[in-house]
Amino acid sequence: RVLFRSIGIALDMLAAAGVKHLLVANMPNLGATPSLNPYPAPSEGAKLLTQAFNATLKGAVDSFKQTYTSISVYYFDVYTLFEGVIADPQSYGFTNVTDAYVNDDDTVNDNGEIYLFWDGVHPMTLAHKLLAKKAADFVDGASTAWYTSSGLLNIASASLGCLIIISFIT
Q1: How far apart are CA 166 and CA 158, in angstroms?
Q2: pTM
């Protein structure tokens, strides 16, 4: 409850600051991370917690959209994107979506595979690039210009745990 109150406060603050567009991304399946995927019960529990978090977040975003009708809000489904990557890694340029590139003892799995995860929970650079590309395509598909020739324009972001909120002030 405290987290969702904090998210609500952050969204209200962005609205008060005059943002016109928000991109809110949900969380990927935490049960699919290398820290948890080898362990069926904890992995399933983390998956269920992630799904519950995402459902509550979606409700909070929907409520925000009803309150602030003049703000364009884009709910970006990272959960489904990452599930697709894990189901068909080659389509996204990955060869290993279950293991960490860097192990707990700081050894590196430099075996020529292209990893989804850097460590037990964090994605690799290629995954971040994929996420950025898909988010840009998603927003661009909604007809919102957010790039200029010199790069990102008037973008403020807030990170709340795994939640990323990006605001576009135009």
Answers
A1: 7
A2: 0.80
Name the β-bridge partners of 149: none
Residues 6+ apart with CB under 8 A from 85: 92, 94, 97, 116, 127, 130
Query: How confident is the model over 118-146, as pLDDT tens digits?
Result: 999 999 999 999 999 998 888 876 544 44
pLDDT given for residue 68 in this prediction: 95
DSSP structure class, residue 99: E
Beta-sheet strand order (sheet of 21-25): 72-76, 21-25, 163-168, 155-160
Residue type, 113: E
Which helix (H) or strand (E) segment holds residue 9: the answer is: helix 2-16
Region for 136 from its dihedrals, namely left if φ exceeds 0, alpha if ψ lies in -120 to 50, beta otherwise: alpha
CA atoms within 13 A on the CB side of 8: 12
Cβ 153 vs Cβ 146: under 8 Å = yes
Contact between residue 10 and residue 160 where contact means Cβ atoms under 8 Å apart: yes
Residues 6+ apart with CB under 8 A from 132: none
Residues of the chain with confidence (pLDDT) below 70? 1-4, 141-170
